[in-house]
């Protein structure tokens, strides 16, 4: 072959790229002198123009990282009832939830039988003895779960515990040899703009690797009461559920769980991962007890508007930012907050030294504190900053402000639904104006009385019998009163703009969560 047609070798490509890069760097340096003068003038006349001091860097190479972490990333196959699969995402691959977005990117259906379907998601091994982390919605309702390792080995898996509130589940597999595993990192240390790698099983294509950057932290997408997601732009799709999100040091900083997809199709570059700090807490509890307990403070809090901030005499934040915090609207009788002296009108600004920006932020942080733990609250009262010591209680069994009880484990009949307050975000997602009153059904337990009666996630319960309801606690109280008097509960529901009545005959569900818990009831 003549020299004229010799293929370009890899080293020559590398040199070519280096030459181009050198030219770019040189060009930048030439422009830098002029920019330097502009910066000096900007600082001199104090215009406030931001001129970032940046450095040109080559794109990272993830080859070695992927080779080392892939053996710990697994494919999860769950045998589900066909109706359970329909609850999570239709067999045609389209989400069936009334919420158009975001939605969990559920596992990829492989085949449909008369009564069951086989579906796949992702997960990762966190210990040599076989503990595997994945999403709750990957194994919810599963009658059989298997884990396939990177080398093709298939192992039966046991569900150790599930936590629907954070969409996490812990599995256990047994192997003849020690399994290779990966560690959970510190999600509090990641920053927007940082490179991350997602590994998973999208559409059944095992071992798929994609990369992107952290777009934002602390995202509340209205999917659950403790949302605090990492937003990433790494391409992730259905079947990535439960897969790990890595930083460049090979640590897991998130569990991929949802994407924003207005059309119901694939990724558009907006994905969400559960932070590893949340995963550590939940997984530790699931391993020990099979369930999760959460802290309880006993306040209903609301967002601070500029008008409220002015009336309360709150100081502006750094660089003129609006005042932050959670305005206490009410305090539950006998609650930890009441015992600590917290009153309506106080603005909670910190918990154990961590800043509180919003009521949701307070809910997330309180829930992560172990019951029985002493904590320090920072708050503002009458324009003065104060602190109080509080002993966090257990959310299960705690009385809500209206006196109802939110114990998820109590016996007796229950409907099998989880409820959420009708927030402004949910109103927007459901297309409801401010005149609509009621509570939103956020989840329906598979096989429950509510599911059998035709209750759907996204339904708005407006009345129990002839009694209007406007919050989860009042709804639970009304349902319990109806159960004492009758065999069935009559619900007036708003669905797709139409009012309908649904009669529910409750039974004792096996795993259902009939929730009187409000997002704002910390």
Secondary structure blueprint with pairings:
Layout: H1 10-45, H2 63-69, E1 73-81, H3 82-88, E2 103-104, E3 108-112, E4 116-125, E5 131-134, H4 136-139, E6 142-148, E7 154-163, E8 168-173, E9 195-200, E10 208-219, E11 229-232, E12 244-246, E13 252-259, E14 271-275, H5 276-289, E15 295-296, E16 299-302, H6 306-312, E17 326-331, H7 336-339, E18 347-351, E19 354-355, H8 359-367, E20 374-381, E21 384-391, E22 393-394, E23 417-421, H9 424-430, E24 439-444, H10 449-453, E25 460-464, E26 467-468, H11 472-485, E27 489-495, E28 498-504
Antiparallel strand pairs: 1-4, 1-6, 2-13, 3-4, 4-5, 5-8, 6-7, 7-8, 9-10, 9-12, 10-11, 11-14, 12-13, 13-14, 15-22, 16-17, 17-18, 18-19, 18-20, 20-21, 23-24, 24-25, 25-26, 25-27, 27-28
